[in-house]
Design brief:
This is Glutamine--fructose-6-phosphate aminotransferase [isomerizing]. The protein has about 375 residues and is of the alpha/beta class. It is globular and about 55 Å long. It binds 6-O-phosphono-alpha-D-glucopyranose. 6-O-phosphono-alpha-D-glucopyranose binds next to helix 5.
Length: about 375
């Protein structure tokens, strides 16, 4: 087992550190940033139908559902197609309205999650086009899909998903770029820029991983917290949800993710001197708003841990602790901001002595409903 872990203490850590490579593998042969080309052979045949879809419905569970939420923001922004994101377990039981030609995107690491699988089977019968974004080649969901793109992250052993998530974000961004470019809903300049930004992700993720010890120090400082709040806005809102989920799964600390503005409608009541509040506060079009949300937490004496863009002195002055991330376009930034949150959950779980690769009560793939 030590050999399988490639010298790492746990599969989870190995898989976190594999991400520069897995994201690169996911992009390889598909994105040519220089020429501005996105080639996804598995969806070519349906590209026209996806482009002309009246709406896109994304179905997933768990971490994959969070990838779907990020994709909602990206697809609506770049492709101008309405997107809904649904928990597969809810969608399948509520007699959903599906029109012929609706595009359903099923996101799944394992390709075997029962709720996601049955939800797409039902939708397929009603005339939807199914696009599978799956990691495990030949899995049930990939076989049931009309079209698809594999995430190519390699086998994921850690029960809590890490590298599969960043690969999902990478593929979904490529899908959005391709549709937007074909459709003409994005300017050539922005499209070319985003292709380059996506191509630069593996090296930026590497830079973050080189600072893993900084996250370890934060883990030491906050490991005894009984609760934590994760806040973000826009593209980083789902990353706040994912950060909170990771902490819950791995360290058994109660954590909630929220859109930063929505905290005023509840979570702010929990803020005390001992509550760590993790902000995903990279410089993007929501940044000013996030800064004022951080100030609101500080005014109530909460502890602010902020993931910020390097050189952001404004956020640094407010936060109790910061972790600096390389600059990136807001569309691709979530892939980078995820990394320190995975590490934070990992190091806290390890510090508390838990079995981070196999958290209690959780299964790698939920094949029964
Ligand atoms: C389980 C796993 C999660 C995963 C979820 C969805 O809960 O523990 O890590 O996100 O299932 O799985 P899927 O294979 O469909 O992505």
């Amino acid at each position: 087992a030590a050999i399988e872990k490639g010298g790492y203490d746990h599969f989870m850590l190995k898989e976190i550190f594999e991400q520069p490579q897995t994201i690169y593998d996911c992009l390889r042969g598909r994105l040519d940033a220089g020429k501005g080309k996105v080639i996804l052979s598995g969806i070519d045949q349906y590209a026209q139908q996806i482009m002309n879809a009246q709406r896109i419905i994304i179905l997933a569970c768990g971490t994959s559902w969070h990838a779907g939420l990020v994709a909602e923001y990206i697809i609506e922004e770049l492709c101008r197609i309405p997107v809904e994101v649904e928990y597969a377990s809810e969608f399948r039981y509520r007699n959903p309205i599906i029109h012929k030609g609706d595009v359903i995107v099923a996101i799944s690491q394992s390709g075997e999650t029962a709720d996601t699988l049955v939800a797409i089977e039902n939708a397929k019968e009603q005339g939807a086009i199914i696009l599978g974004i799956v990691n495990v080649v030949g899995s049930s969901i990939s076989r049931k899909s009309h079209a698809g793109a594999y995430t190519h992250a390699g086998p994921e052993i850690g029960v809590a998903s890490t590298k599969a998530f960043t690969a999902q974000l990478t593929v979904l961004t490529m899908v959005a770029l391709k549709i937007a470019h074909d459709k003409g809903s994005v300017s050539t300049e922005r499209y070319m820029h985003l292709c380059q930004e996506l191509a630069a992700i593996p090296e930026k993720v590497e830079l973050v991983l080189e600072k893993a010890d900084e996250v370890k120090a934060l883990a030491e400082k906050y490991k005894d917290a009984s609760d934590a709040l994760y806040l973000g806005r826009g593209y980083n809102f789902p990353i706040a949800l994912e950060g909170a989920l990771k902490l819950k799964e791995i360290s058994y600390i109660h954590a909630e993710g929220y859109p930063a503005a929505e905290m005023k409608h509840g979570p702010i009541a929990l803020v005390t001197e001992t509550l760590p509040v993790v902000f995903v506060a990279t410089k993007d079009s929501y940044h000013e708003k996030v800064v004022s949300n951080m100030q609101e937490i500080k005014a109530r004496k909460g502890k602010v841990i902020a993931l910020i863009t390097e050189g952001d002195t404004v956020s640094a002055a407010i936060a109790d602790d910061i972790f600096e991330l390389p600059q990136a376009d807001e569309i691709v930034a979530p892939i980078i901001s995820t990394i320190p949150l995975q590490l934070l959950a990992y190091y806290i779980g390890v510090a508390k002595g838990y079995d981070v690769d196999k958290p209690r009560n959780l299964a790698k793939s939920v094949t029964v409903e």
